[in-house]
From TrEMBL:
Family, per entry: Belongs to the NAD(P)-dependent epimerase/dehydratase family.
Protein's recorded name: UDP-glucose 4-epimerase
Any Pfam family the entry gives: GDP_Man_Dehyd
Keyword tags: Carbohydrate metabolism, Isomerase, NAD
Transmembrane spans: none
Broad class of enzyme this protein falls into: isomerase
Gene Ontology terms: cellular component: cytosol
Subunit structure, as described in the record: Homodimer.
Entries under PANTHER family matching the protein: UDP-GLUCOSE 4-EPIMERASE
Catalytic reaction annotation: UDP-alpha-D-glucose = UDP-alpha-D-galactose
Cofactor(s) annotated in UniProt: NAD(+)
Phosphoprotein is among the record's keywords: no
Pathway: Carbohydrate metabolism; galactose metabolism
């Protein structure tokens, strides 16, 4: 049974990926320091798959702990999710973001190299493109100067990995997610925003649940059909399944170069108002909202060109926006 390390494996995308890895017969080791996740997620994963992943409460900024883990666990692959990811927060505490997101990445790569462990999947983001000049966005779109320290850690992270592949046998794939949303069909795992949600869908479902008075729609004067910003909302389970395809690509040596990048999106752009309308349609719930000023740092539109991921990686999305929105609501109802 192939062994795989999932860092941040109790988080939103991490936990969904652990479920799909177990469904595919992988033995999963999770490292998580619970800074943005809950230990209860471990039992939820176990209740879905019937298999309890091995869990290590390690802070990846602890170089000695990272060294010890890789010296004692010869994993066939590493999927690295663990990172701080709040755009706005990263502007407030940039040094913590660089220490955590970059420091932990370097330690992991050092110890993988020391133990000749060479298959690495990196959680990246479409945020590296900023406002792309052309839509849909391909993997060849230029990486724009980061709009936030968070986005910068993703850009720098990719550069570090690329450099690491030049001095070792490391094979790496960076997966640039567009906007992951939704929850597992069991409604046992999902997005657990701490405090006031920064992202759209958690805020929408909390408003529908009556936990928030009304949603503020950031900007209604964008150059889009209805004036609100457009994004590519992709079901988190489709994102999770892409990680298994990418991991198998590396384990089976089907990669075409030591550093590859794939966009993970549906190829479909939807505006904020379209998302609200779809959510109300599939759930029958009302979402109170008001149109307010744009949010600093937001781009007008971002959605993926999916050809390269479909044809080269051999992966495509299977779930719709409506299914994702309904699953997000079903998850919210359990909280
Ligand atoms: C989506 C749209 C907002 C909240 C960010 C990161 C990206 C990834 C996903 C981590 C935008 C609008 C939002 C609200 C709103 N994060 N909105 N009212 O900004 O596209 O992407 O989160 O990996 O890297 O950049 O996602 O969900 O915050 O916003 O109108 O209360 O919804 O303006 O147009 P975003 P988002």
């Amino acid at each position: 049974m192939k062994k795989v390390l999932v860092t941040g494996g109790l988080g939103f995308i991490g936990s969904h990926t652990v479920v799909e890895l177990q469904n595919e017969g992988f033995e999963v080791y999770i490292i998580d320091n619970l800074s943005n996740s809950k230990i209860e997620v471990l039992d939820k994963i176990t209740s879905i798959t019937g298999v309890k992943p091995s869990f290590f409460n390690i802070d990846l900024r602890d170089k000695a702990a990272v060294k010890d883990f890789f010296a004692n666990n010869k994993v066939d692959g590493t999927i690295h999710f663990a990172a701080y990811k709040a755009v706005g927060e990263s502007v407030q505490i940039p040094l913590e973001y660089y220490e955590n997101n970059i420091g932990s990445l370097v330690y992991i790569l050092q110890e993988m190299k020391a133990n000749n462990l060479n298959n690495f999947i990196f959680s990246s983001s479409c945020t590296v493109y900023g406002q792309a000049d052309e839509l849909p966005i391909t993997e060849n779109a230029p990486v724009k100067p980061a709009e936030s320290p968070y986005g910068n850690t993703k850009q720098i992270g990719e550069e570090i990995i690329k450099d690491a592949t030049k001095i070792s046998e490391l094979k790496a794939i960076a997966l640039r997610y567009f906007n992951p949303i939704g929850s597992h069909e069991s409604a046992k795992i999902g997005e657990l925003p701490i405090g006031v949600p920064q992202n759209l869908i958690p805020y929408v479902v909390q408003t529908a649940a009556g936990l928030r008075d009304e949603l503020s729609v950031f900007g209604s004067d964008y150059n889009t059909p209805d004036g609100t910003a457009v994004r590519d909302y992709i079901h988190v389970v489709d994102i999770a399944k892409a990680h298994i395809v990418a991991l198998k690509r590396l384990i089976e040596d089907n990669n075409k170069s030591q550093f590859e990048v794939f966009n993970l999106g549906t190829g479909q752009g939807n505006s904020v108002l379209e998302v609200i309308k779809s959510f109300e349609k599939v759930t029958g719930k009302k979402v109170n909202f008001k149109l307010v000023a744009r949010r600093e740092g937001d781009v007008t539109a971002a959605y993926a060109d999916t050809n390269y991921a479909n044809n080269e990686l051999g992966w495509k999305t299977e779930l719709s926006l409506d299914e994702a929105l309904l699953s997000a609501w079903k998850w919210q109802e359990t909280l």
